[in-house]
Amino acid sequence: MAARRPGAARASTVAEQLRGARPQLTPAELRVAQTLLADYPAAGLQSVAALAARAGVSGPTVVRLVAKLGFSGYAQLQSRLRDELSARNAGPAQRYPAADPADRAGPLLRRFESSVSAAVRESLVAVDGVEFDTAVGLLTDQGRQVLITGGRVSGVHAQYLAHSLALLRPDIRYVPAERSTRAAALLDIAPESVVVVFDYRRYEDESVQFGRGAAAAGAVVVLMTDTYLSPLASSAAVLLTCSVEGPAPFITLTPALALVEALVLGAVERMGSPLRHRLERFDALTTDLTAP
After folding, report:
1. Of 210, 215, 219, whose CA–CA distance to 146 is shortest?
2. Which of 89, 115, 149 is the last residue of a domain?
3. Residue 90 clears pLDDT 60, i.e. is over it
4. Predicted confidence (pLDDT) at residue 11 exceeds the cutoff of 70
């Protein structure tokens, strides 16, 4: 999939289209959409008959859903999914830009600002408001322990969210990506726990397995991922996606950071004025600890 030029409109993924179309779908079409999202994108790469049987609907129901999404036929949908599969598996080497002077016109900072600002704006506009509010409610429910983990790079985002939430409420735990630490965390997960997992392409198997283990233990999983969807999506109760399309050859996680800060602001507003007393106490304790 070619790299997007700065300022160009980003094509929505099939997953985004499916999630956006849910209010307009019939119950049968919704079953097809849920089947596709539960095993994305692999479920859409099988035949119409196989997908229909898996969803428990007729073949024409699948065809009607495909038409509602704006595709000319099932073959076009599958072509898009194959393109997405290539994009989600692409690393820096595959995304390295061709030597095209047109892509480097103008000062680097202006080009970077244009590309990353567009990704942040698109991501925040596309966030599902109901899922966002649900995530804020879970994170501020002080009857629930919250565990937060991320991958090799997104662990920074997980740490930032954990550090910020720990100022607002108790029982916040950052879980490093080490295998033994995650295994120990799974031992103590209770059904009322909330587990936030950050997983962006290229997705990390150990993060996915940790999230699935938490869901199997009865925890509510909040997944922070990109628009191509981590394999953990089928086990997540809440799904918050963002664009990671940035200047090649790397993806950008700036939109993910913006979404983290939006969650923190949402938590502050949800908790209201009583939170101020906790923050004042934190400042006082910090002063006491640093006093000579």
Report:
1. 219
2. 89
3. yes
4. no
